[in-house]
Specification:
Transcription Regulator spoIIAA; 6-stranded mixed β-sheet; 27 helices; elongated
Length: about 625
């Protein structure tokens, strides 16, 4: 029978499989239908607003919720996760749209989907959770600033010829267009913002019966509906009261179409000049870097949302299956006009609070958005753009977590503060591509430094006579703690440079070394080479399974005749007592390997000794 391959344990649609296996009845279906309707109501205005903020017409946000939201739910590894367009992507997607047009955004999303699938097949789902908190916090707060800045032009009704992709230029553009501000748009935007803020507070002061009936009516639905009605009523009474709406903003595209998503090649969508983008390998190469940023942020956001969902619902998600589903969703959605999608934390929380029991609720949410789009597209075109901007300002405020951001700046270690600041400033001043690379690189370097601080070599001497008891004279004992990997090996092994000719044996206590990598092996062998010049016998004591396996495979025991391995300190003491040089051997400067060879053959597993013959041409010392 053939051995199982690397994908033998990979599963698709884990959440749906587990739900059906556990038994899915009529009561579960009713709960999922209700939860899906509630989340669909929340997602409808958000999908349009997030599409607009990403630089595309609002229907592309709706298409994302419909296609990607449904596919990811069916194939994913989280029972309650709801996916779709999210605010986190705006900082990445808006610059892509500005430079490459809608078609460029579709191609980049498609490439990101492929990368996510590769990540899932490679089993990287669990590794994403290791990204440090300051990195994600810096991204999140920086994205919130970018989102808020981008909404000010619509909130103020500014007229700008072209909206630049980066924060500094955006601020300069708004300052230059300040004289084009429209008072009526600002008033409608502030009205919407007031409703969004006051609606949750109003619910808390209503009678219990009213709260029960209105608890699933989201503030965005109330705020946008009231703002649209107020703007329409005021315009009917005073024609001069005119605000920019979705329909007027996207008049060239005839507003939101009253049709389902239709299949189209991603590169057939318009480029920056309004013409179809066209297939080009050169374009694919240019969009590879933004696609990596989309994939990384999508993976982080979706798995973070899945973890939060587990905490709220008491479930357990499959990270690789979830990553695979996110990849398929992002790969397929652009062929139907969708943009980048990932797990939406707020919508997922709403789904769980509404009683969702399985991925069916997220599928219902996608179907609701489709039906609402088909039925309400003419009405949705009357929503004011200033109201959409107000909604995204609330989203930006909620995702900024400003209190946690300031608390981290004040109380976290300086290294974490530096990572937080780099990620935040890179996101705001440059873009998410730079921020993702800089943040993860800096966090990795700091992790290596911290692991190097954890790993140490401690000389055991007169300050700990109990551990020296029984060792013959002329033996030095070093206790090594922590993993010997590329960030710590040099620091640990350089301590052995102080060992001179007056010690005939060195004990390296590796009991507290859980792992060693290639760099650790190179540094260990360099230390052994230095000790070989002084004819010093080396005993590796208490070596764990992984380091012993790595040392054996590296050939260290067979290449160096002055090295032995013992399981315990007692065995080490017995070995050294037997190997202690006699006066005649000292006078003849007998090689350590010859003294060690007196014990061969080894006593079972108690002592693993090197080949007796010393190596005549030691290997060149590797890099430190």
């Amino acid at each position: 029978m053939a051995a199982p391959g690397p994908l033998s344990h990979f599963r698709v649609a884990t959440a749906l499989r587990e739900t059906l296996a556990a038994g899915y009845g009529a009561s579960d279906l009713r709960a999922d239908l209700l939860a899906g309707l509630v989340v669909g109501i929340v997602a409808l205005p958000l999908a349009m607003a997030l599409g607009i903020a990403s630089g595309v017409p609002p229907q592309h946000g709706l298409y994302t919720a419909i296609v990607a939201g449904g596919l990811i739910a069916l194939l994913g590894g989280s029972r309650a996760q709801v996916s779709g367009p999210t605010a986190a992507f705006i900082a990445i997607l808006a610059p892509i749209t500005a430079q490459y047009g809608v078609g460029g955004l579709m191609v980049a999303t498609m490439l990101a989907g492929g990368l996510l699938i590769i990540m899932a097949l490679g089993g990287l789902g669990r590794l994403i959770s290791y990204i440090p908190y300051p990195v994600t916090m810096g991204f999140t707060t920086g994205i919130a600033v970018v989102i808020a800045t981008g909404q000010l032009k619509d909130l103020l009704g500014l007229t700008v010829p072209a909206w630049p992709p980066h924060f500094p230029e955006q601020v300069a553009t708004m300052v230059g267009a300040a004289d084009t501000a429209r008072l009526f748009d600002l008033l409608i935007g502030l009205f919407t913002l007031a409703v969004l803020i006051l609606w949750p507070r109003l619910l808390r002061h209503l009678p219990a019966a009213a709260q029960k009936g209105l608890r699933f009516v989201p503030a965005p639905l109330v705020g946008l509906a009231l703002a649209g009605l107020v703007a329409f009523a005021l315009h009917s009474m005073w024609p001069s009261f005119d605000v920019v709406t979705i329909g007027s903003k996207y008049a060239k595209q005839n507003g939101i179409p009253q049709s389902a998503p239709m299949f189209a090649l991603p590169w057939s969508f318009p480029g920056p000049d309004g013409e179809p983008l066209g297939f080009s390998l050169a374009l694919f190469r240019e969009l590879a870097s933004p696609a990596v940023a989309i994939a990384l942020l999508g993976a982080i956001e979706s798995l973070l949302s899945a973890v939060i969902a587990d905490g709220l619902a008491g479930t357990r998600h499959d990270p690789d299956a979830e990553l695979f589903a996110q990849g398929v969703g992002n790969l397929v959605a652009p062929f139907f006009g969708g943009i980048a999608a990932t797990g939406a934390i707020a919508r997922t929380g709403t789904n769980i609070r509404a009683g969702a029991r399985s991925p069916v609720s997220a599928v219902v949410h996608a179907l609701f958005v489709l039906v609402a789009m088909l039925a309400l597209a003419p009405v949705l075109n009357y929503l004011p753009m200033a109201s959409m901007a107000a909604l995204l300002l609330m989203v930006a405020w909620n995702m900024s977590e400003i209190q946690h951001f300031l608390h981290t700046l004040k109380h976290a270690p300086r290294s974490d503060v530096s990572v937080l600041a780099v990620c935040f400033l890179s996101t705001v001043v440059f873009d998410m591509v730079v921020a993702v690379v800089a943040g993860i690189l800096l966090a990795s370097l700091l992790f290596m430094r911290r692991m190097a601080e954890v790993s140490e070599v401690r000389l055991i001497g007169d300050h700990d006579p109990n551990r020296m008891r029984g060792l013959p004279k002329g033996v030095v004992h070093y206790d090594i703690g922590g993993p010997l990997f590329f960030g710590a090996a040099q620091k640990a092994m350089q301590e052995l440079e102080v060992v001179g000719r007056h010690y005939w044996a060195v004990v390296l206590d590796l009991e507290d070394v859980p792992a060693i990598d290639a760099t650790g092996l190179v540094n260990l062998e360099s230390a052994l080479k230095r000790l070989a010049r002084h004819n010093t016998l080396v005993v590796l004591s208490g070596v764990r399974h992984q380091p012993l396996d790595a040392i054996t495979k590296a050939g260290i025991l067979s290449h160096w005749g002055h090295v032995a391995v013992c399981n315990t300190m007692q065995e080490t003491i017995e070995l050294l007592v037997e190997c202690a040089p006699t006066p005649a051997e000292e006078a003849a400067n007998m090689a350590a390997s010859d003294r060690l060879s007196r014990l061969t053959p080894a006593r079972g597993n108690e002592v693993v000794s090197a080949t007796p013959a010393p190596r005549t041409d030691p290997p060149k010392e590797g890099p430190k």
